[in-house]
Amino acid sequence: MKRRWLTWSGIGVLAVLMALALAACGDDGDDAADTSGDDGGDDIAAVIEQLGGPVTFGEPAKGGTFRIANTDFAQSDGFDPTGEYFGSAWTIYNSLMLRTLVSYPFTAGSAGNELVADLATELPEPSADGLTWTFTLKDGVKFGPPVNRDVTSKDIAYAFQRIATPSVAAQYANYYQVIKGLPEFSAGEAKTISGIQTPDDKTITFTLTQPTGDFLFRLAMPATAPIPREVGKCYTQAAEYGRYVIASGPYMIDGSDKLDISSCGSQKPISGFNPNTGLYLVRNPNYDPATDDVEIRQSNPDRFEISVNTNLDNIFAQIERGELEGSFETPPNAVLRRYLQDPESRERLRVNSGDRIWFAYMNLTTPPFDDVHVRKAMNLVMDLEGVQRAWGGPVQGSIPTDVLPDTLMPELTADSYAPYQAAPFAGDVDAAKEEMKLSAYDTDKDGLCDAPACKGIVHLNRNFAPWSTQSPIIVQSAAQIGIELETREASRSAVNDASGKPGREIPLSSGNGWGKDYADPSTFMVLFDGRNILADGNTAFSLVGLTPAKAKEVGATIPASGPVPSVDADIDACNPLTGQERTDCWVALNKKITEEIVPWVPLMDATAIDLIGPAVTQYDMDQNGTEMALSRVAVDESLQK
Amino acid sequence: MTRYIIRRLMYVILVVFAVTAVAYTIFFVLPSTDPAVAFAGRNPTPELVQEVREQLNLDEPVPVQYALYVKRLVTGDEYGWPGLGLSYNTRSPVRDEIINRASVTLQIAIGGAILWLLIGIPIGVISALKQRSLADRLAMGFALVGVSAPVFWLGLVMLYVFWEKLGWLPGTGYVPFAESPKEWFLHMLMPWMVLALLFAAIYARIVRGNMIDTMGEDYIRTARAKGLSESRVVTRHGLRAGLSPVITLLGIDLALLVGNTVVTETVFNMPGLGNYVLVSTDSGDLPGVLAVVVLAAFAVAFLSLVSDIIYAYLDPRVRYR
């Protein structure tokens, strides 16, 4: 009898556990599962195509609170616009809080990467020698409370002084070294930046040391937004100003009006921002829409709440229920699949170009990748379709055929330019073997890498999906040409750390990616600029352009097989150009890098995916920030929970 | 007794510094992401990296860095006492962050503890008194489920059932008590229940074992022989002896929870210390991680001390060992 009770209680416990397990599993599936399967009979590529660009539901109106949650308030410099380098922060600054001389239309696609005048009355042309740029500021633009005064050219000049102040640690100050006198100001050799002149409150002139074709793009970055000296002077260390950012755009941090700026000591962090819990924005009462393009900055909601929720699944569950309007995070594949398969709700899923490439970089100093034929063979043999499937299908990105995202270089899309493989890009083993035969590492010329250097090659990757799911595909692809990879997976920071140290001599890594800073190929060319190679924190991963002197400096080794190829001169040739000449130059260099240098196997031209809640009545994507266009969204409060 | 307390206090200080030294070595000496490089952005110049390194005192030799850390910890820094430095991530004082978040973690831990004691002790007692009965089997079945179910899974199941399907409770997030006591309670309920289910199961098993042993002691038989009612025997004599190990265990468990609520706080999006250590680890914010490690070590050592003192007070044999 006792034994029977024991049995029954055991069965009961088992039943409870199974019921709970079923409840927990629900209708969700494996996160890394393919989202490209059954889509209700529609062609998945066509479906994804339809999900790009802006969308409207019902009658968009002003008012309400637009609520966003992310797993953390991603920031690289405490939300200080001088140093902050995260795309989501840039979207918040540009769309909502800060105005710069030039800006973007905050819309999806190539149009969203075009520059428009913002604080400036118009987009200027440079002087004939390409060295001088003069801007006139619009009237009536004011700082938000508690500063409450007109924005002047001197506030912009002050922002540049902060960029040039080493203790503020501007993270992309490299873009402004072309301004005459800025390096001297940084070094403490000058009290002002001689290349920035403000003859009156409405005029600012930049004098450069060399023609710079993308200078206007650089002036659209948030670090150049005006900062009132009376507040900024109190914060001269990195990230400090992030808690005191004064608005010049349509929204300000909630509680800004309570900031006491009578002295530095009286200032306490603005209550509406805590990096660990969130950012709350309300309308800036000093913002005058007459000074702005109200089609671009529609500024529909009265309030934005950008909070932190550490539970990613819960964020998207809240969006689906109408408790949130969106997130800067990418929805899990289970959520993507559900929306893609449901024609009723799929319009709430928005898929646009992420202007970001994920790649497997090959180290040009490390055998066997010091041989261009091996690198080409890797590009030929790679099962890119399999990699795409491992990521979750076409919704996660398209297959790249060059080293730049398609939106940055629409001249070279997979339809028009595919130097290694043809669709479906599943790997061309025969062509790869033919290429391998040309390599010194294929000693018997059978198309297989057979030298000792072909065995036990370290392949570094991230230890979480989707990167980890692509590892076996990369390993199997390489094995078909005799390259035996040993995958070592680690955290994101560990991968970045190892990749960033040339002295570690990582031969191959597929855990790295790059997104644009602005819509010009130059922001990707830093990855191939030999002068940009660092001993630590290096992002020129493949070491293209490594010279013997640089190798000594960073602890790398020039391979015995010969010098490392360089494109430094090509980059220098393209940089001063403007217009079509510039475009043609970058196209030619892109082809040269892709076909002759071959530093990477490009793996994914990633998308930017947004899931928007049922209360969102208008959505667009900010192609510059590759996040939701907050300046154009609208919400219907009656549909919110 | 005073000498005993002083001796134990010295031991606490020693433990805290040993933990600090080990943690500091792990985070700052063994290979990890260079905080200066991480802080300097994705395309840093060597000059900027050097500037950041100087700002963060990372240009000093590691022993000097550690000595500076300990000095600031003991004497305080420009942000107050204890000196826990500046977050690499938010550039705000870690001390303020720890104080704010510790209160949330304490609310979760204390509420959870009350709940698990309210569940675990009665179940343990009933199981012990009704050995091999249906109630005992069910209680131990419950204990088995509670111990076996992972916290994150239990949390997700609860969210699914009580928030997503039934809509009885609010989902994730924290509402301060001062803002709305009702919302505070409703938001805390699920985290409390998740912690309580795990620990109640463990406590029920411990109480059951202790009670069975205690109820077989001679003095219990004597109490019964004196004619005391069974309820009086259980409450006055059985429970007092049977629950004393639970008091010790509770002290240690509460202390461990200070640094051990990562999963609960992450699932329920509670801005506590567990959540903080996760965010800090992910972003390479070493001062944040180190601060939680130090606090957790101190909490464990201090509450062990308190338990030892209570034990020494209750049982004089302990202090002479």
Structure description:
The complex is a heterodimer of chains A (641) and B (321). Chain A is α+β, with helices and mostly antiparallel strands and 641 residues long. Chain A folds into 3 domains: 11-62 and 327-352 and 608-632, no CATH class; 72-305, Periplasmic binding protein-like II (D-Maltodextrin-Binding Protein, domain 2), CATH 3.40.190.10; 355-606, Dipeptide-binding Protein, domain 3 (Roll). In chain A, 26% of the residues lie in helices and 16% in strands. Chain A is built from 18 helices and 21 strands. A 6-stranded mixed sheet of chain A has the order 13-17-12-16-14-15. Chain A is globular. Helices cover 76% and strands 0% of the residues of chain B. Chain B has 14 helices and no strands. With 321 residues, chain B is mainly α. Chain B has 2 domains: 2-94, no CATH class; 104-314, MetI-like fold (Orthogonal Bundle), CATH 1.10.3720. In chain B, helix 5 runs antiparallel to helix 10, helix 7 (151-165) packs across helix 8 and helix 8 (181-215) packs across helix 10. Chain B has helices spanning 2-29, 35-39, 46-55, 62-75, 94-129, 134-148, 151-165, 181-215, 218-225, 230-258, 262-267, 273-282, 286-314, 316-319. At the A-B interface, helix 1, helix 8 and helix 14 of A face helix 2, helix 3, helix 6, helix 7 and helix 11 of B.
